[in-house]
Amino acid sequence: MSDTGKSPAGISSAGAERYSVGVIGAGTMGNVHADAWRSTGARLIGVYDIDPAAGERLATKFGIAAFPSRQALFDAVDIVDVCTPTYTHAENVVAAAQAGKHVVCEKPMALSLEECASMIRAAEQAGVRLFIAQVVRFFAEFATAKQLIDSGKIGKVGVYRSTRGGSNPGEAGPTWFTQEYRSGGVVLDLMVHDIDYARWVCGDVERVYCRRFLGANTDYALITLRFRSGAIGHIEGSWAFPAGMFRTAFDIAGDGGLLTYDSESSAPLRFRRREQAAAKGGVVVPSSPMDPADNPYLKEIQHFLSCLMSGEQFLVTAYDAMAAVQVALAARQSALTGRPVTLEPLSLGQKG
Ligand SMILES: NC(=O)c1ccc[n+]([C@@H]2O[C@H](COP(=O)([O-])OP(=O)(O)OC[C@H]3O[C@@H](n4cnc5c(N)ncnc54)[C@H](O)[C@@H]3O)[C@@H](O)[C@H]2O)c1
Questions:
Q1: By CB neighbour count within 10 A (0-12 exposed, 13-18 middle, 19+ buried), where does 72 fall?
Q2: Please, which residues bridge with residue 210 across strands?
Q3: 27 Cα–ligand 1 center, Å
Q4: Interior/surface letters 247-257, b for 16+ CB within 10 angstroms, e for the rest
Q5: pLDDT band at residue 294, thresholds of 50, 70 and 90?
Q6: Ligand 1 centre from 49 Cα, in Å?
Q7: Are 254 and 149 contacting, i.e. CB atoms less than 8 angstroms apart?
Q8: Are 73 and 47 a contacting pair, CB within 8 Å?
Q9: Given a cut of 80, is residue 280 above it in pLDDT?
Q10: Residues with CB under 6 A from ligand 1
């Protein structure tokens, strides 16, 4: 926290100190979120993990308490940040909401629409805020591209294409990530990032088609989307890269221009306006992933806090997160049946 009262992400933290925060789940994302909370002005006071040793490790690292039970954490905090594996999200979020706590929860929201609906209902009934951490909306390149699109720079979007890939989480040993019934596999766990972003850019999805390849250390899928706007989308996701490699990229084409981004490129986000392209070439929109102000995990937590204090709607609503899960589930179904899936309207009485 700087002495101007602003976080590195530049959002005012005035008043944040009145909130106490507890993290559930002390794995990779529990550590990332705990680190972010420390820069917000809110009081990170403790962690609970089903594995006491993991809880102790995070608690020691951040100088906070390791609570012996989830209830003990609920009793001590105003905000609960759920960073547990996906198959436990619904249960943890519903319990936190019923305890009267505002909730942040990692993506993907849950494994079924029924679970998503139960989370939203629990928050609404308890009068608490629920924020699903769809972090891609807070990455500088993705946020800048969205701003350019909203300001009409590329005209009406016709084609959205993205890719996201990393190594297979199972390569390092057994993990819940490669258990389809616990993580949803590459489609739900990884591609939900781009599904959410594609919906942000192109609006609601009408129809979903998916081809998927599952093999040794390989979980690959290619999703084709038809948006209600008439736009089409191609979303590629891969858990098949060599260890340590991670790449994201997109091309978004409108009737007035093209936005391209590739995380492997040194000047990742480029904007080319059709009528200017011949004269001036590409305009590079600079962004620095190394700048602490660009840390998307801090930005999303700051955004949550800021909306909590102001009462404003979140950039990504719980319904958006549920809609992204709906598309991912439809993609998995399409991959199994070989047929396209037309989406039904979402409802909080949702089954399945
Ligand atoms: N936004 C991103 O970029 C991003 C990246 C990785 C993972 N994730 C998501 O974050 C979530 C957590 O992933 P991770 O990589 O931190 O997993 P992880 O396996 O590294 O850590 C999970 C932790 O939760 C604990 N845990 C399991 N069940 C629990 C329970 N019922 N109560 C309390 N603690 C419990 C485990 O002991 C472990 O310490 C997943 O939903 C995942 O999809 C998001």
A1: middle
A2: 223
A3: 5
A4: ebbbebbbeeb
A5: confident
A6: 10
A7: yes
A8: yes
A9: no
A10: 24-30, 48-51, 54, 83-86, 88, 106-107, 133, 135, 189
Contacts of 39 by beta carbon, 8 Å cutoff, 6+ apart: 1, 7, 8, 9, 298
Q: What is the pLDDT of residue 244?
A: 80
Of the chain, the end-to-end C-alpha distance in Å amounts to: 43
* Element containing residue 280 per DSSP (H, E): helix 277-280
- pLDDT, one tens digit per residue, over 92-114 is 999 999 999 999 999 999 999 99
Expressed in angstroms and rounded, the spacing between residue 84 Cα and the centre of ligand 1 is 4
For 58, the enclosing helix (H) or strand (E) is helix 52-62
User: Over the stretch 171-199, which tens digit does the pLDDT of each residue have?
Assistant: 888 999 999 999 999 999 999 999 999 99
- Residue 290: CB partners within 8 Å, gap ≥ 6? none
Q: Which ligand 1 atom is at minimum distance from the Cα of 175?
A: 19
Q: How far is the CA of 297 from the centre of ligand 1 (A)?
A: 15
Domains of the chain from N-terminus onward? 16-136+311-317 (3.40.50.720), 140-296+321-337 (3.30.360.10)
Q: Are 315 and 31 in contact (CB under 8 A)?
A: no
Closest CA to 113 of 188, 199, 203, 201: 188
Instruction: Find out whether 221 and 230 touch, Cβ atoms under 8 Å.
Output: no
| C-alpha dist (Å) from residue 283 to 269, 286, 352 | 9, 9, 46
* Of 161, 115, 352, 119, residue with least CA distance to 253: 161
Task: Assign 159 to helix, strand or coil.
Answer: strand
Pick from 118, 76, 120: which is nearest to 101 by CA? 76
Question: Does the pLDDT at position 51 exceed 60?
Answer: yes
Q: Please name which of 36, 65, 331, 83 lies closest in space to residue 210, comparing C-alpha atoms.
A: 331
Q: Residue 252 has which token pair?
A: 């978004």
Strands, E assignment, the chain: 20-24, 43-48, 65-66, 79-82, 102-106, 130-133, 157-167, 205-215, 218-227, 232-241, 246-254, 257-262, 269-273, 283-284, 341-342
